[in-house]
Amino acid sequence: MRDRIASLRQHVLARHLLLALVGLLVVVVVVESVSDYRNTQLASMAYLGIAAGGLTVLTGINGQLSLGHGALMAIGAYTSALLLPDRDASVPLTLVVLAATAVTLVVGAVVGLAAARLHGPYLAGATLALAVAVPGIALYFKETFGGEQGIRVVMPDIPVWVLDAVFFVTGQDLTRSRFTAYIGWLTLIVVFVLLANLSAGRTGRRWRAVRDDEVSAELAGIDLGRARVSAFMVSAAAAGAAGAILAFTVKLAAPSAFTLTLSLTLLAAIVLGGLGSLAGALIGAALLTFLPSVVTDAGRSAGLSDIQAAELAPLVYGLVMVLVILLAPTGIVGSLRSAALRGRARRRTTSPTTTPKGTAA
Amino acid sequence: MQQFLNTALTGLTLGMVYAAFALALVLIWRSTRIVNFAQAPMAMTTTFVALVVIDAGFSYWLGFVAALLSGLVLGAVLERVVVRPVEGKAEINAVILTLGLFIVLHGLAAVVFGNRYRSFPAPFGLEGLSVGGTTIALNGFGIFTIVSVLLVMALLVALFRFTDVGLRMRASAFNQEVARLLGVKVGSMLTLGWALASLVGSLAGLLIAGGSLVHPSYMDSVVVFGFVAAVLGGLDSPLGAVVGGLVLGLSLSFVSGYVGSQLVALAALVILMLVLTLRPGGLFAQAPERRV
C-alpha cells in the first residue's frame, strides 16, 4: 500500500489530478456553505488566481516580467462580452471561456514575440506601455467596444441539467452567484492542472533553463526565443481565461476595470505568494480579495474616514511587497519551503552524530 | 497650416516635460542600473506637497521650491533606505521593488491627500499668445516650462562638467570599484544621484500639473512616456533623453491632434517597440551592441 502511494506521488499527472479532485470537493463545500456576497468574492478570487497563476509561471519559472497582464485580461473580458450581448445568446459559457482564451493566446503570441528580445527593465517598460495603451483602444473604437461605459455582459440562463445536477448533489437550489463561483473555480482548477503539468514536465524544465542561464540553455540545444514565446503564450492564455471569468463576475467589460493598478495588483499577488509557485499565486489572490475589507475596517476603527480607509488596502499590500523583496525574496511559500528544508537539514546533521555514539557504546 | 503649427508647439512643450522626466530616469539608470518606475508617484507626491503649501495661503513659488526640496529629500531617503539593499542584485528584484514603491506612494497619497481631482494653479497666463493677429498654442506657462527645463539641464551639465562633485558622480557611475579605490564615497554619490533625479522628476510633475488637475494617478501615463523617451535616447545618455523627449512629445502631439487622443499611449507603445527592434541602443547608438 505504501509503495502504491509512493508511486502515485512520483506520477506527476496523477498527483495533480488527485489534488484537483480534493480542490474540487473543497470548492463545492465552501461555495455551498457561504452567502451570495461571499460567493461573488470567491469568483473574484478565482479570476485573480487564474491570472496570477499564469503570471507566476511566466515570471517565476521563465524569468520574464509582465506588467501587461491586466491588458491581456481586458482582451479576454471584451471577447466574452462581445459573445454574450443578450440573454438569447446561444454560445455556451464553456465556449466563451475557450474563445476568450484563444483570442488572448493569439495576442499573447504577438506580444511574446516582441517581448522575447527584451529583458529586465526593458520588458517591464514595454509591458507597462501595453497596460496603458490597451484601454485607449477600447475608448477609440467606441462603436465596437462601448467607449467609457464599456459593454454589458448578459449571462445566459443556467442550463436545466446543471440546476438538476447541482440539486441532486447538494440538495440546494443553485443561485446565480453560486453558479458564477462554480464556473470560476472549475476554470481555475483546469488551468492550474494544465499549468502545473506543463511546468513539471519537459517544457517547464526548458523554461527554467532559459531563466537560469541563457548560454547554457542554448548550448543544451534549447531555442531561447521559442521557449520565451511559448511561456508568454501560455501565460497570456491564462490571463484570457481570467478575463472571461472577470466578465462573468462583474457583468461588465469597461476600460476602468483594466487600469495599470490591476496589472500591478497581479504582480503584487505573485510576489506576496512567492514567485514561481502556483500555491503562492492562490495565496496571493486570496490576500488581495479578502485583505481589503479587513484593512478598511481596521482603518475605519482607527479613526480614518471611509474614503481614506478604502485606500489603505493598496498601501498595505504595496508595503508588504516592498518588505517581501527586501526581507524574503522567495515570498510566503518560498520562505515556508526553505524553513522546512532547513529543519530537515538540521535533523539530518544531528542524526549522524548520535549514531556513532550508539555504535561506540 | 495653423493646426499644424499649434500641434507642433503643443508637442514642443509636452516634449520638454517628457525630456525632464526621461532625464530623471537616465540619471538613476546611469548610477545604479535601475529603471525607477516609482519616479511618477514620487513626482506626484511632491506636487501634492506644493499644493498643500499653496492651499495654505503661501505663494506659488514657495510651493514650487517646497516641492523641489521635498523631491530632493524623498529621492535621497528612498535610495538610502529601500533601494540600497537591491543594488547589484538580480535586476528583476529592483524592478519589482520600484513597482512596489509605486503602489505604496500611490496609496499613501490617496490616504493623505485624498483620492480626488484637485486643480493646481499656474503662475503664468494660460491664454495663448497672439502673433500677428492669430492666437497660437503657446502660453506664458508653456514658455516657463521650456525655459525651466532648459535651465535645469544647463545646471546639470555644469554640475557634471565643471564641478568636483560632478566628476565624482561620473566616476562612481563609470566604475564603482575604481572610484572607491580613488577615494570617492560611492554610496553618497549614488544617494546624491537619486536625489537629483527625484528633483528633476518633481519639476516635470509640477510642469504637467500647472493649470490642470492633479490626482494620485495623474502621472501614471507619464512614466510610460518618460521611459519611451529615455529608451529613444538610449537610456544611458542625458542628451539622448532630451532629444528622445522632444521627438516623443512631437509625435504624440501629432497622433493626438490628427488621429485621436485615446491612441496616444498606443502610439508610444508602437514607437517603443520600433526602437527596441530596430535600434536597441537608442537613436544615437554608435556601435551595434546587445543591451536589451
TrEMBL record, chain A:
The chain crosses the membrane at residues 12-30, 42-60, 67-85, 91-115, 122-141, 182-200, 229-250, 262-295, 315-336. It comes from the Bacteria. Its main location: membrane. It is a multi-pass membrane protein. Keywords: Cell membrane, Membrane, Transmembrane, Transmembrane helix. It is found in: Cell membrane. The keyword Cell division does not apply. InterPro entries: ABC_transp_permease, LivM-like. This is Branched-chain amino acid ABC transporter permease. It comes from Nocardioides flavus. The gene is livM.
From TrEMBL, chain B:
The gene is livH. It is found in: Cell membrane. The chain crosses the membrane at residues 6-27, 34-54, 60-82, 94-116, 136-160, 181-209, 265-285. The lineage of its organism: Bacteria, Bacillati, Actinomycetota, Actinomycetes, Propionibacteriales. It holds the Pfam family BPD_transp_2. InterPro entries: ABC_transp_permease, BCAA_transport_permease. It is a multi-pass membrane protein. Keywords: Amino-acid transport, Cell membrane, Membrane, Transmembrane, Transmembrane helix, Transport. Belongs to the binding-protein-dependent transport system permease family. LivHM subfamily. This is Branched-chain amino acid ABC transporter permease.
